[in-house]
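Sequence in, structure out.
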Amino acid sequence: MPLFSMKKKAEFQKVLYRPQPYPDNYTDEKLFLNSLKRNKNLQTFSFLECVDQGQLPLQQLCCTVMFFLLHFIDLNVTDGMIYSMALVTVVGYLTITGFSVHEIRTVILFGGFLFGLSPIIQTLTRTLR
């Protein structure tokens, strides 16, 4: 009979209901990160897709800056400049969206309300100054 008997440890099983000769926080080297899935929902975008999706926030930023420049800085802005900027904005918007009938109707309706209410807005701003 040998002096030291080498008793082999039972093979590790990833179950909690069976007593095992391993500590509770034991991790088997063969099973560690075995079920890891890297970049499972990764979506790749091309440069042109990123530029295309970045146009809308940039347009909103430019509109905000133009509004600030026109209304808070006392520039000598003529009506012709405002009409030309509005025309360029509408043409640019319709070019980007593809000249659909629904978009053109929306732009005409929105522009009509703005020009129709502009005398009221002018009198309100005159009384507040």
